[in-house]
Amino acid sequence: MARPGPLPRGRGSQEAGAGTLLRLRGVSRAYGQLQALHPLDLDVDRGTCTVLFGHNGSGKSTLLRIAAGRDMPSTGRVLFDGRPIDEDDPEVRARVAVAGDTVAFYPDLTVRDHLELIAVAHDIAGADAWIGQVLADRGLSAHAHHLPSALSSGQIQALTLAAALVRPRDLLLLDEPEQRLDPGARGRLVHLLNGEKDDGVAVLLATHQAELVHAVADHVVVLEDGEVVAAGEPAAVLDPHGGLA
Questions:
Q1: Which of 3, 111, 146, 178 is 20 to 30 Å from the Cα of 103, by its Cα?
Q2: Where is the ABC transporter domain (predicted)?
């Protein structure tokens, strides 16, 4: 994404590109008798994109919520920059941006109002320029003064992405960000994600679209019924149609 100035970064002590930012060890999740996620290990490095690939119900969203500190694992631990992740930790809130599987916007605030609120909360310098650029890149400039209720489902998805992008981030977590986007917006998404990597951001996203995996991923983890069935570089793991290579 073209940027009007330096990337608003978090407050991490390490430089971008300096190794693993997110580390999961022995992480699993059970809901009563349902084993939603079997024990797994995962590293996400700065300046790379790791993709969780699988159909609905495979465990992708569960794993993302745990990675964001929004759900507790039944076993194992999650470390963000060497410290246990907790959504309420100010360090995490300042450095981790999430566009998840649930959407909640204030009904009486416009698209631009939402982004301005986020920018103020994170004390973003040059917020007007940032917001204008994010609106343009997400195809929302013409809808900046619209309320969420006036947006299409694809525009709501674009706003969800914009809300994550207007704030500082060292780690970006996305749950099926391509959903409900038209072909042009999907192309912009690929450009965006590759730009995030270039800026040293660690990206972890979930999808069941093989095309997106091959366009942006450095590493792919294939999940089925909560278990890892394959992992590695996209070309070695998936064929162009999403089947195992």
A1: 3
A2: 22-245
